Amino acid sequence: MILSDKDIKTKFESGEIKISPMPDLNVALGPMSIDLRLGHQFMVFKRTEQPYIDVQQPDTFQNLTSLINKQNHEPFTIHPGEFMLATTLESVEIPNNLAGRLEGRSSLGRLGIVIHSTAGKFDPGWKGNLVLEISNIGLVPVRVYPEMRVCQLLFEELSSETAQPYTKRESSKYKFQHDPVGSKITSDNNEG
């Protein structure tokens, strides 16, 4: 069951869901979601002559990205075919009986901006800023700005509280992230 605006607001008031800094609910709270804003850092992939990334070879991940910081009203241009990682301005804490689902905003989607490629769910017990996998699938460069509303977060109720909250699992790779963090898929090799 997806929470309604009333239920989301009640969970904020009780402290069950925590968002910091809290967006202006008059603007950000929709019928079944809350809009979150774009952070200030962008992890962009560099052009390279490296022939491939090997998911089992950590050395093939090195020197592929640059971290770019932008101020509040300083634009960041996303070119066609470009892919980058960013985070929400807000840090989110999700209780152990809810899951979060990230969706892009329709207004940006209509410009060709995709906010998440595949990682659109946030497990019960999540704490940290939400990662955004941003790409421009359109034909025209698009400028975005830190602190603009960029995505929506929905909350879904679990049938019962999870026994494995995200922050308690040893295998959780992105606990408490605040900045864009690149792939940690090579740590899968250490799993049993």
UniProtKB/TrEMBL annotation:
<dbReference type="GO" id="GO:0008829">
    <property type="term" value="F:dCTP deaminase activity"/>
</dbReference>
<dbReference type="GO" id="GO:0000166">
    <property type="term" value="F:nucleotide binding"/>
</dbReference>
<dbReference type="InterPro" id="IPR036157">
    <property type="entry name" value="dUTPase-like_sf"/>
</dbReference>
<dbReference type="GO" id="GO:0006229">
    <property type="term" value="P:dUTP biosynthetic process"/>
</dbReference>
<dbReference type="GO" id="GO:0006226">
    <property type="term" value="P:dUMP biosynthetic process"/>
</dbReference>
<feature type="binding site">
    <location>
        <begin position="131"/>
        <end position="133"/>
    </location>
    <ligand>
        <name>dCTP</name>
    </ligand>
</feature>
<keyword id="KW-0546">Nucleotide metabolism</keyword>
<dbReference type="InterPro" id="IPR033704">
    <property type="entry name" value="dUTPase_trimeric"/>
</dbReference>
<feature type="compositionally biased region" description="Basic and acidic residues">
    <location>
        <begin position="167"/>
        <end position="178"/>
    </location>
</feature>
<feature type="binding site">
    <location>
        <position position="177"/>
    </location>
    <ligand>
        <name>dCTP</name>
    </ligand>
</feature>
<comment type="subunit">
    <text>Homotrimer.</text>
</comment>
<feature type="binding site">
    <location>
        <position position="123"/>
    </location>
    <ligand>
        <name>dCTP</name>
    </ligand>
</feature>
<feature type="region of interest" description="Disordered">
    <location>
        <begin position="165"/>
        <end position="192"/>
    </location>
</feature>
<feature type="binding site">
    <location>
        <position position="166"/>
    </location>
    <ligand>
        <name>dCTP</name>
    </ligand>
</feature>
<dbReference type="Pfam" id="PF22769">
    <property type="entry name" value="DCD"/>
</dbReference>
<feature type="binding site">
    <location>
        <position position="173"/>
    </location>
    <ligand>
        <name>dCTP</name>
    </ligand>
</feature>
<dbReference type="GO" id="GO:0015949">
    <property type="term" value="P:nucleobase-containing small molecule interconversion"/>
</dbReference>
<protein>
    <recommendedName>
        <fullName>dCTP deaminase</fullName>
        <ecNumber>3.5.4.13</ecNumber>
    </recommendedName>
</protein>
<comment type="similarity">
    <text>Belongs to the dCTP deaminase family.</text>
</comment>
<keyword id="KW-0547">Nucleotide-binding</keyword>
<feature type="binding site">
    <location>
        <begin position="105"/>
        <end position="110"/>
    </location>
    <ligand>
        <name>dCTP</name>
    </ligand>
</feature>
<comment type="function">
    <text>Catalyzes the deamination of dCTP to dUTP.</text>
</comment>
<comment type="pathway">
    <text>Pyrimidine metabolism; dUMP biosynthesis; dUMP from dCTP (dUTP route): step 1/2.</text>
</comment>
<keyword id="KW-0378">Hydrolase</keyword>
<dbReference type="InterPro" id="IPR011962">
    <property type="entry name" value="dCTP_deaminase"/>
</dbReference>
<feature type="binding site">
    <location>
        <position position="152"/>
    </location>
    <ligand>
        <name>dCTP</name>
    </ligand>
</feature>
<feature type="active site" description="Proton donor/acceptor">
    <location>
        <position position="133"/>
    </location>
</feature>
